[in-house]
Design brief:
heterodimer; A: 762 residues; alpha+beta; Aldehyde Oxidoreductase, domain 4; five-stranded mixed β-sheet; 22 helices; 28 strands; globular; disordered N terminus; B: 159 residues; 13% strand; TAT_signal (chain A)
Amino acid sequence: MRNSSIINVSRRGILGGMGAGALILAVGLPRPGRAQEEPEFGRDAMPNGWRDDPKVFIAIAPDGIVTVTCHRQEMGQGVRTSIAMVVADELGAEWENVRVTQAPGDEEKYGNQDTDGSRSLRHHFMPLRRAGAAARTMLEQAAAEQWGVDVSEVKADGHKVRHAGSGRTLGYGELAAAAMDLDVPARDSLTLKDPSEFRYIGKNSIGLVDNMDITTGTTTYGIDVKREGMLYAVVARPPVYGGTVASLDDSAALAIDGVEKVVRIEPSEFPTEFAPLGGVAVIARNTYLAMKGRDALEIEWDNGPNADYDSETYRETLSQAANSEGGKVLRDEGDYDEAAAGAAQTVEAEYYIPHLAQAPMEPPAAVVEIKDGRAEAWACVQAPQVTKLRLAERLGLDESAVRVNVTLLGGGFGRKSKPDFVLEAGILSQAMDGAPVKLTWTREDDIHHSYYHTVSVEKMSAGLDEGGKTVAWRHRTAAPTIGSIFAPDPMQKLPFELGMGLLNMPLAIENVRAENPQAPAHVRIGWYRSVSNIPHAFAIQSFAAELAEAAGRDQKEYLLELIGPPREIDPTNQGDVWNYGENPDVYPIDTGRMAAVVEAAAEGIEWGRDMPEGQGLGIAGHYSFVSYVAVAAEVEVVDGEVRVPRVSIAIDCGAHVNPDRIRSQMEGAVIMGVGQALMTEVTFAEGRAVQDNFDTYLIPRMEEAPKRIDVHFVGNDAAYDRPLGGVGEPGLPPVVPAITNAVFAATKKRIRRLPIADQLRS
Amino acid sequence: MVKLVINGEERRFDGDQDTPLLWVLRDEMGLTGTKYGCGIAACGACTVHIDGAPSFACVTPVGVLEGAEVTTIEGLSEKGDHPVQEAWRELNVAQCGYCQAGQIMQAAALVEQYDTVTDEDIDAVMSANLCRCGTYPRIRAAVKQASAAKSGSKAAEAQ
């Protein structure tokens, strides 16, 4: 039973005492209404909500050019194209006359701009359709007025308004000024297009709006911004989280021709949230000289309380926690202990998932300039509003005196949700009397000072009855929480982390317990594409395969049995107060859809075929970001080396806006997952990240990418009256267990520790 | 001081001759199409052509380039209509797009060098260039398409 008082209590309990962080952490948690009111969900519950005002999002020039303002950040998901498609379709615009401009951070004007959680289209599809429809209606009204006819006699389409009786037409450009002077029609008076009339939405008719610029090198990412008189900076940061500068000799650096200044950046209060780590900046005439100056700094560090952080030792710490009684019980159905004790067979497995760095190809970079008491930033940020707020605070300016312009993001994956690098650029501009300063993170900076994906031990235990059916299931997850960057370490996962596959686990098992023992954080923990779904899906889907093996059953058939009969699950009944911020009545978990993607992925890989020695098939399915994805992988293992020649991935994300970008997100997720299965990890020794750059922090290359990736669309992709699912993240979680399950099929060796690296080499 | 030709124009640089070509292009010449990704020749985001050969601008000191001809993404074609660029757009290869200038420069050299391009060639050559978004399947397809377009136009010229 869901009600706002439960949510209220949970929110207080979880967010109480979190200060400034509460604002951020509240993102996506259902927002309880005032007394006696229904709680708000989804787009309504996001900070600053949504807007659908056509005058905010659409400008039409006298020459007919329609400019759509994109208020969500482009980082490769194709959102600039998709948002323009939605608006243009409802507007009745001709695509060749549509342009896209990027909004600065201004949520009062644009509504929520945090581009994360796979929710840009899920939350803004309908408001943007209404914006387009409203503008279309205003163009019709303007034309009808000009002709002195009733508005019902005119129709806007194909970039012009036509009067049916006379055949007269007026172009959008001719009508623009008069139309945009009109009042915006009431929301409930708007007529949205019937999906059968869509020309762009759901079609593959539109290429990327930035295609020409990207292929000719004329795009502007954060790292590309240039301002008159700009200086260039890099920062030497404490190598250990929480460290400080003990002593500094900057004489050699300052002796370099072209090095302008060395600036101490004071460490921020810990935990640092989105504030800089502190350190020493070198400001110079170009990036190379700044790096050369940084190399010449002589710094002794006080490494602080995390100086002993060591990945091997910490894995044992997590393992101990995960193997102990007394962890916080978060979900408890039936009687696990009794069912396990009475089981014919018990199975246990412990899984380890390492830290990861998002490592977007464009490292963090930003330019800030301060003039006449106003600061202006140009930056590759996923969350421009919080960037503006934190930059204003750090520079001692009013929010209204700060502007954050958003560039293209050369990848984000969660790293660029945190604007610490923009604050560094602001501090350095201030130190240079407001001159524009470009702050660039080198790749080493990026790997050494990421907001890392958490590190987990997942301990799974189960009991099977005589028929091999799973009758008891216990999942213990031990992992430092993202909450630890916002407040004194909470030691337990937050609702949004628990709701990523742990508490909302939809398998049909009678006796289920989920526990979360404590785990301290020693580095900055942050969002990484699909977040806690990564460890949870790996553990659950690996374990499901282990149970199939224990029961002597086919992996796919057993998984389908665990998923059980088609039914709708309200995750809040299982202790998941979050449900991706969505209303569980609107977004229940539909196990029929889950089973359907598993079937589709299996069919796509020709499940059940005989495999030669050293080759195997594996499968996994996972629900995340209110979408359903399953992956079937084919692997071959030669001399302990794993190759993944072929992957079949099936997604049901509800109705499709931009099918080609859904496809590309699935392709990309498969390749990122291949990396996580085979090679990608960050480890720590003496508090420092061991890996430095792409020579040691390994991500897949062309030769390691599957030669064949088949993307299958499942479900009703034209159900535009139904709520949309996420796309950017849900592809990733099932990829890794599908691969490691296939490795088992090929070698009989169970991978319980990621990445595989050299585990299979003799 | 070094004199070199960048995208057909003679340019000079009299700063620190150890400065990698990458930073000369980006910070001094205003050519930001060539990207920084690693600084150690491990990711290929900085790939340019030096005297026609694909090269990592991030590890090439500008001082060794006296008289060299450098082509960057901005100079690959006048109208952005190199077969590789066209294939990239037709197949919507890019996601974030950041690594794509380097990918395109690497691919342009590859299709220039071989009349037909095999999967093995693509593995061997394009593995120098990292893409974190995972656009490899489309890069593979686009390289093949560009190679076919190129040999098609060669065949047409020969007739």
